[in-house]
Amino acid sequence: NFLYCVYKQQYLELVDGQEYQKAFTYLTKKLKPFEALQSHPDEFKNLCYLLTCKNISDVDKEWDGIASGRNRLAGMFGSLMTDTETTEKANAGDGADVP
Questions:
Q1: Where are the beta strands (DSSP E) in the chain?
Q2: Is residue 30 within 8 Å of residue 7, measured between CB atoms?
Q3: Helix H or strand E segment including 43
Q4: Which of 15, 30, 41, 63 could form a disulfide with 7 if both were Cys (CB 3.0 to 4.6 A apart)?
């Protein structure tokens, strides 16, 4: 889910900036409802654990900085847009109305 990935990135940026109180609030209000969408069973637990760590890469080995995370999101968004355009063209070709 793209929205979950955006929220996770925002949370990681707060932790990376050592804004732990804001990160905790964000975790409980934005990420907790998406807990069922985690990519592996311990992901949410690891996100919680980040609040006690000094370095994100101690827990998230894939974390290589804010810019890299944002680039990944941009790539995901581009793929979503391409998929949407492809679907709309296919529906238009079938004679279906596209809003």
A1: none
A2: yes
A3: helix 43-49
A4: 30
Average model confidence (pLDDT) for the chain? Answer: 83
Model pLDDT for residues 23-42, shown as the tens digit of each residue: 999 999 999 999 888 878 88
Tokens encoding 12: 């990681």
Q: Identify residue 24 by its one-letter amino acid code.
A: F
Those residues whose C-beta lies under 8 Å from the C-beta of residue 92, and which sit 6 or more positions away, are 98
Coil, strand or helix: which one is 23? helix
- Token reading at 34: 């998406």
CA distance to 1, 15, 82, per residue, from 30 (Å): 13, 14, 27
SS3 73: helix
Q: pLDDT tens digits for 81-91?
A: 886 666 666 67
- CA dist 33 and 4 (Å) reads 9
CB 88 within 8 A of CB 98: yes
